[in-house]
Amino acid sequence: MTDRPRVYLAGPEVFLPDAAEVGRHKKVLCEAYGLVGLFPLDNDLAAAGAEVPVDRAIFRLNVAMMRRADAGIFNLSPFRGPGADAGTVFELGLMHGLGKPIFAYTNAADTLLARTPDATRDPNGVWRDRDGLMVEDFGNADNLMLDACLADAGAPLVRAAATCPLHDLEGFEICLRLLAARLGGVA
Amino acid sequence: MTDRPRVYLAGPEVFLPDAAEVGRHKKVLCEAYGLVGLFPLDNDLAAAGAEVPVDRAIFRLNVAMMRRADAGIFNLSPFRGPGADAGTVFELGLMHGLGKPIFAYTNAADTLLARTPDATRDPNGVWRDRDGLMVEDFGNADNLMLDACLADAGAPLVRAAATCPLHDLEGFEICLRLLAARLGGVA
Questions:
Q1: Mean pLDDT of A33-47
Q2: What is the residue range of A23's domain?
Q3: ipTM confidence
């Protein structure tokens, strides 16, 4: 069974109190689509060696897991602010740089502009936040580098309005279907 | 002069009202260190072709600029929240994935934990925000994937307390010195 495609499961759910349970649920869904889910918290920290600081050990193991993966699915739901979790965004860029297929979802249906507090148009029609910083107005869910990368790579960001934004897996399952079809898994 | 090393200048300053001026200032500093600065706003959108949506044109031109660059310097200063700008974080991951040398600074001296509102310890000693989400406690300036990546790549994130967080270039210049020394430029 080791030849089933492996998919890296990136997202801020690693910070949830029930992170392991969410990871388990995601991996069960992967199985249903003929895929093997790789969840960052499953890494064995001891494998990095005791002489490495814990944060760097986690980093190295996550990167090794991404290199091992055939593709990635990224949870870009808003996290502590209007945009996605930084760790997940970093990993999206990394896996794109490595040339791996990427798929992503967000459990928020609206745009980054709609989620930016107190955004108003300046005299030139440009949207700016309360500090005068420009806010992109492309209808994207997040910074254009994220949305446009996904669209350019063939699978636009999936937006799924969710009742429980950091737990609902409808958007995740849509990504699984897209990925399974792309990789030739069981869809 | 085309053989001078090229450095991609990533950061949320592209959203400032005086973005072009900040970019010009960064490029002048690059020159002083024997480097050529590549600033995203210098891209000619027309080069992407009229049939491509503007956001995807910007994405493609930025990625082409990063591929052309010999290295990158990233401004990871907090942006609209406790952490760095998503576009810059994506680009950090991408350039690391492409195997390019990366350097970064933040114009905030404190930690992500210190900047997270209402963080408290749970009964197990784990820091959690007001939504119960874990906050990393590694003394890092941002998500561990960012800080640990930079440390692992040989140039830990430069923290420079600044009076004008999105304009001050002291941290940027420290990165320039590190980069010039690494690439063998004029330091």
A1: 93
A2: 9-183
A3: 0.96
